[in-house]
Amino acid sequence: MKSKKLKYLLFAYIAVGVAVLSGCALRPVVPYDTVEKGLLGGVVVTQALDYTSTKDAFGRGCVEGNRFLGEYPSDSTLILAKIIVSGVVYFSANNIKNHIARKVLLTIVNGIGLIAYEHNINIDCGGK
User: Does pTM top 0.90 for this prediction?
Assistant: First the structure.
């Protein structure tokens, strides 16, 4: 039952990401080029990777490092946090007129997401 709920939550997250990337939300000041669209997709992917690796780390006895979320946040809390991060990045990138600056922002955000993922999969909490 829990895995079915998790699949629906992940599906909802992916749907929000697709809606954002398709331009259903706010139109950018300057249209995105192909590279920027790919980098925006990377934000959604890295947020999903961070979510799944965080859940895996919980299974190994780890606790959440983000104190705003608590030690053991629910699936919906984690997914909501990922949606908020993705939304903030998207709306921030929308207001950047310079393509190079926009690409730098999105590359940095993707790098941070990959660092969080790598940390979560390699952390040893001495648990299960």
Answer: no
